[in-house]
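Late entry, written up from scratch paper. The run itself happened at the end of the previous shift, but nothing got recorded in the book at the time, so transcribing now.
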Amino acid sequence: MKKTMEKAIEKAIKRGKLMQNGLIRVMTASPSIRVADCHFNARNIIEIARKAETQDVQLLVTPELGITGYTCADLFLQTKLLEEATNALLHICEQTKTREMILLVGLPLLYRSKLYNCAAVLHKGNILGFVPKSNLPNYGEFYEKRQFTSGFAETQIIETGAFRGVPIGAGQLFQCSNLPEFILGVEICEDLWVPLPPSTHLAAAGATIIANLSASDETIGKQEYRRSLVSGQSAQQMCAYLYADATRGESTTDMVFAGHNLIAENGTILAESKLFEETYSVIAEIDLQRLTHERCRVNTYVVKEPIEYRSTYFELAKKEISFSRTKKKKKCEIIAVKQFFRFKRVVLQNV
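Output as recorded:
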């Protein structure tokens, strides 16, 4: 009887029967790129989105400035490159309009005569919003202020051009209407490395998942430091943190990139890619109900009214997904379910 119950529970977990309440599958991925080749880069983003859908991914995050490449330097000031980036984003929208997922891609965006390093949040061919990078590094090997302008918090609406009607601003939340626990906040690379990251305010305003589009280069010891930043921020904010890093396809004139992708949940690293590997994608399931429960349980967790944040709503089809966590965590799930049924049996006996 005991073995039969264990097998039934394991089978249910594999089928995803225990994962329909507040769990979603996420991926961080670093497609192969060529610097300033927007057509090539867009094609690879589309392809990885296709592969992600076959694995039932519902949120896919790609690196900072992934459409153009991060290391374009003064090419970012060329009109031709900006036009190609715009066309590439529109092409990605067209080719992913049947994909049942949220897709985040990075590109340079010219807005009111200023150039912004932006994340575009896409859903089934629609652009839900542009989130500009707030903190631009201009030290050491970084000189982003040479080309870009720091982002602004207040949300504005683009009034002209190809992206007319799309909101832009760092103060945005993206919320799933049929899964209320899924609230997405976005920041870009250096935003995480400052003393008070934008994700701190986004989480306090309700975000349960933070996506970071990054182009973080490698130096001695930086891998460990980056990992501690991601896990620490996810713990402090009681959220999931998705970090998508640039790959070795970037220019090595000033920096070296290794595609260090990370997924953390409430302080625990769920998935991590190895440096300089051929495969630059990692997948994990995020337990959104657990995160909201923890925020409810910990009375010192501070929540503020998101009055200064704009919320954009979307809807995702609910999927039955398989379980991809480690055997140790599967065993924990089995134990938890067994304890639940044991408790339920005791309660029924005492009624």
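The chain has two domains: 1-20+327-351, 24-319.
(Scratch paper discarded after transcription.)
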